[in-house]
Design a protein that fits this description.
Blueprint: E1 6-8, E2 21-23, H1 34-45, H2 65-74, H3 86-102, E3 112-116, H4 119-140, E4 149-153, H5 158-166, E5 170-174, E6 196-202, H6 214-228, E7 234-237, H7 245-248, E8 261-267, E9 279-283, E10 295-299, E11 302-306, H8 316-352, E12 357-359, E13 368-373, H9 383-391, E14 399-401, E15 410-415, H10 422-440
Parallel strand pairs: 4-5, 4-6, 6-7, 7-8
Antiparallel strand pairs: 1-2, 3-9, 8-9, 10-11, 12-13, 13-15, 14-15
Helix pairs in contact: 2-8, 3-8, 8-10, 9-10
Length: 457
């Protein structure tokens, strides 16, 4: 009989006196050989999915061998210890200034920014700066600071709901619809008031990959400013698109070219092409980050400003980001992102011609697209069944409902990242066709017990 509370040790390491099983939930009393400990963990993680076949996640799963070498040389660096690792601290500053230039800041070297653990922390910092600026302005005017609110799409990533919950801000969700598939400025004036600390615009909606038209959102807020005097800023949640648009859609106006855009966040570990554990946030000018949120630490005999939720955190990913900036350059980033977009458009076209599906979007923004089942196609199977069939081949392609007002619509989504080659994409498309053929041949409905939405990052 197998005990679920223990882990079996591979017999390869069954040496005299060595334990054959290990308790999962208590630290062993005695030490074990490093080879044994390694083998236990190694064998357990073999049960994880193949990250290269994970089309659910936006997070990067591949870097080249030189990046891996650099990673192994620097994974012991603590990003917060700027006295001990001044060069890493200096490189961090170079990186956010490179991003500021990429995003058309008026004076890139005069911007304020920071690295973070991921874009979720970066979003939290952007929202916190909004709240503090609003509070300072309200107090200066002798007004109440009791009821701040933040306006965003109902298709927002969960980090913004967390921000509002953790920092006592009322979230105001503008619902998406068939006509308005993302936040596009429509009816925005109905959601803002004197307590609005800012509006979040998403450059690559998590659910579908679509860009929200920041220029239209800014124009709607300009009209509000003209009519009411309310001057409401925008934060760009560019988790994915902020490292796509500068290369693939350089003429798209979404960034610091719009004065209403105060801050931009991005995931270095998504289309920034770095391993997990890195985000960035940049303010168009240093005055937009309230001074009382900044802490200063000793650095090279001077003071180094720091603004982050985490204290000790890895410095290696910052160095990997700088490596990628040097390694790729603008031409390299264009080539990598264009290759991903080409694969996404290929897959979208192949899926779009199948009678079973209607495309929600086609991957022409970020290399992400979604589709739904054609109305009336069948009652025998759903996109959840297709997701299950694809898992049999190792593919992770999530299915999930859209947010409120469209929660009756289920979509499936593919995220194309660096590492999904055109050959792999052809295999994925073949497997989708095969799965659809199997499901269409069913003479009765698939069992639906235990079906749950796939996790969408």
């Amino acid at each position: 009989m197998v005990d679920d509370g223990v882990v079996a040790v591979n017999p390869l390491f069954a040496r005299p006196g060595e334990a054959r099983v290990v308790d999962k939930y208590r630290m062993p009393t005695e030490s074990m050989l490093p080879e044994t400990a390694y083998q236990i963990v190694h064998d357990e993680i073999m049960l994880d999915g193949n990250s290269r076949l994970n089309q659910a996640t936006f997070v990067g799963t591949w870097m080249d061998s030189y990046a891996s070498k650099l990673y192994s040389e620097s994974f012991d660096k603590n990003m917060i210890d700027k006295d001990e690792y001044p060069q890493t601290a200096d490189i961090e500053g170079r990186c956010w200034k490179i991003l500021a230039e990429l995003w058309h800041a008026p004076e890139p070297t005069a911007t304020m920014g920071t690295s973070t653990i991921g874009s979720s922390e970066a979003c939290m910092l952007g929202g916190l700066a909004f709240k503090r600026r609003w509070q300072l302005a309200r107090r200066a005017a002798g007004k109440s600071t009791d009821r701040p609110n933040l306006v965003m799409t109902s298709a927002v990533q969960v980090v913004w709901e967390k921000f509002c919950n953790y920092w006592d801000v009322e979230p105001r969700f503008v619902p998406i619809s068939e006509e308005h598939k993302c936040l596009d400025g429509h009816d925005l004036s109905s959601y803002v008031d004197e307590n609005t600390i800012g509006v979040v615009a998403i450059l690559g909606v998590t659910y579908t990959g679509m860009y929200e038209p920041v220029d239209k959102i800014a124009a709607a807020l300009d009209a509000v400013h003209h009519d009411t005097g309310l001057d409401i800023p925008i934060h760009i949640d560019g988790a994915s698109g902020a490292m796509i648009a500068p290369f693939l859609q350089p003429d798209l106006v979404w960034d610091f070219r719009l004065e209403r855009v105060h801050s931009i966040s991005v995931s270095g570990h998504k289309y920034g092409l770095v391993y997990p554990g890195l985000g960035w946030v940049v303010w168009r000018s240093s005055d937009l980050l309230p001074e009382d949120l900044i802490f200063r630490v000793s650095y090279l005999g001077g003071a180094m400003p720091t603004f982050a939720l985490n204290f000790s955190r890895p410095g290696a990913q910052v160095l990997l980001q700088y490596y990628q900036f040097l390694r790729q350059g603008k031409a390299g980033y264009y080539s990598v992102q264009k290759a991903s977009q080409d694969v996404a458009r290929f897959l979208a076209q192949g899926i779009g011609v199948l009678d079973a599906f209607d495309l929600w979007n086609d991957g022409s923004d970020i290399p992400v697209f979604a589709w739904r089942q054609t109305a009336g196609h069948t009652e025998n199977w759903s996109l959840y069944d297709l997701s299950d069939r694809l898992r049999l081949k190792g593919w992770q392609v999530p299915a999930y409902p859209l947010p409120d007002n469209l929660s009756n619509v289920t979509v499936q989504r593919i995220v194309v990242r660096n590492g999904l080659s055109m050959d792999l994409a052809r295999s994925l498309l073949d497997d989708i066709r095969e799965a659809v053929g199997f499901l269409d041949r069913l003479r009765g409905p698939m069992p639906s017990e235990g079906q749950t939405p796939g996790f969408h990052h």
